[in-house]
Amino acid sequence: MSKCKRILLTLVVALLPICGWGQVSARVAGLEGNSKYMALLLQEKQLHQREDSVMNVISQTRKLFAAATAEREKYGQEILRLEGELFDIRNRIGEVGNSINVIEQEYVLEHMDAPALPVTAPQSPAVTVAEDSLKKQVPNLVFNDYFKAHLSPNDYSSLCRSQEKEVVPPVLINTFLDNYRQMEELAATYSTAPRPEAEEAYSKLQTIKGINDVLADSLAHVWNYIYDNKVYAYNYLLDKMNKSELLDDFEKQFRETNQRIASARDQVASAVVYGYPLRKKLVLSYEMALAGILGYTQARDSLAKVLKEVDVLDYNLPPVDPTPRNFIEYGNIEVTSPAKYNSSHPIPQNEVFKYGTVYKVQVGNFIRTQPVSIFRNVSPLCYEKQEDGRYSYYAGAFRELPEAQAAVEQLTKLGFRKPQIVVWRDGIFESLGEEAASASAASSDQQEVFYRVEIGGEGEEMSAGVKEILSSVAQDKEVSRASAPDGGYIYTVGSFGDRESAERLAELLGAVDGVTAKVLELKN
Fold first, then answer.
1. How, if at all, do strands 391-398 and 428-432 pair?
2. Rg (the chain; Cα; Å)
3. Residue 231 · residue 287 · CB < 8 Å
4. Of the candidates 66, 167, 249, 390, which lies 20 to 30 Å from 405 by C-alpha distance?
5. Is the CB of residue 231 less than 8 Å from the CB of residue 279?
6. Which of 462, 461, 492, 489 shows the shortest CA–CA distance to 478?
């Protein structure tokens, strides 16, 4: 049996109806006879068990994903599917929890004026440290007797479960970091490799990015559970101790931490991962203060060690988002003999690229495909079947509009009737019509306008980021360098026949740290 099948079998077993888990106790005295309420409590318990089982299966699959080579994509898809099932289970836990809360609230409201019933929670009008002898201490703060004695059974159970879940975030983050390192390697491959290898790398990068997004969602869900239950219990106890100053200080730190995380949201790979050590340190400091008040020295020392470990964590990881590459193959109009296309080498279909701009000249739109002989030995050619069933044929592939306009004149002289310029910008089609095709003739009596891009903020040698952008979108453009008044250097790229291409380059360059770029309009 393969590893993947064994994992699926484990998942099936984990999701089977679970029996023999024992009974549950009513959280509110008096509701023991409410069959719907007790059934919901049992269902909630079962859902938590299933949640744990699915998380175990996901953990096994992630290990296989990290070790696999041939079946890596399959494991990645399986992780995404399992995370989706886990998300559904957690939604169901929330729905069941809400139903339980409604029944409890309605019961309490109905019996507010009734004689008091025995309750399951211990009664203590005020919490004081002195009343506890603290005879026994354990290093784990929440497992000390004080918390069990002064919290309701339900709140203490939630607090203990939160402590047990503390082992989950580091596992999720370590997997996230392993994936992040793979994404960096794939991004480097995408930026430099030939097209087939680059596209494969980009596809893998997007798959791993999807897995990391799911990991971040799981981290947020687990940490929110831990944080909410711990802080609720600690706030309750400190409020009973009248420690308002400590409560106010924690609330202030909580707001500041959230503001810090929010301000970094667009600069990091994951705000949840980035924020985890910041929030974790805040809760640890809170726990250390509480341990000090209660005199739990073992717990305080243990928390201090954990805080020292967390204090060095820094997940300020920049997003892995490589600059899109332009794989368009540009080509001028040629007339060859013999013709480039024939029955053995037919005219290819038009390929639409996701990134980049390409101008082409439409030389015909027909009801059916045409023989290559009608295109007068012109190349390069391609065709595209339209939504209405007609076939459009295009000649050439140009970076700039003036180049396409010159091709229109050339094709007109060859006998093509009313050739029209079309353009794809990042995969989006637009027909510029006959006006753009005839613009070159109209502009012959006017001054020629062209554009260049001026780059500032660079040294004697261009930075790697600027070189990468120029090699990707302006590899055929001339680059010159001149000294700047401030002792630095100014680089000029171009010329460009249209302002749009120049502005696009300037926008990409301006995104590089420390680099400025502006478009210059010039006339002959």
1. unpaired
2. 34
3. no
4. 390
5. no
6. 492
Measured between its terminal Cα atoms, the distance across the chain in Å is 75
Give the C-alpha separation, 116 to 126, whole Å.
19
The tokens for 407 are 């091709």
User: DSSP string of 195-248?
Assistant: HHHHHHHHHHHHHHHHHHHHHHHHHHHHHHHHHHHHHHHHHHHHHHTT-HHHHH
Can you point out the beta strands (E) in 291-356?
A: 334-335
> Does a cis peptide bond (omega within 30 degrees of 0) precede residue 338?
yes
Edge-to-edge, what's the strand order for the sheet holding 428-432?
Answer: 381-385, 391-398, 357-366, 420-425, 428-432
Instruction: Decide if 337 contacts 287 (C-beta within 8 A).
Output: no
Q: Which of 417, 409, 415 is closest to 436 using CA atoms?
A: 409
Amino acid at 430: E
Residue 261 C-beta-side C-alpha neighbours within 13 Å = 19
Q: How far apart are CA 491 and CA 469, in angstroms?
A: 14
pLDDT along the chain (524 residues), means of 10: 49 42 67 85 83 79 71 75 77 74 66 44 40 63 91 92 91 93 94 91 92 92 93 92 90 92 92 95 93 92 93 93 90 91 93 92 92 91 94 95 93 90 93 62 54 85 85 79 75 82 87 86 69
Quick check: pTM over 0.90?
no
Residue 482's H or E segment, with its range, is strand 479-483
Give dist(CA 104, CA 113) in Å, integer.
16
Tokens of 36: 């719907």
3-state class (DSSP) for residue 35: helix
Please tell me the predicted confidence (pLDDT) of residue 116.
Answer: 39
Q: Which two tokens stand for residue 471?
A: 């090699």
Query: CA-CA distance, 147 to 158, in Å (whole number)?
Result: 12
Q: Extract the tokens encoding 64.
A: 């296989």
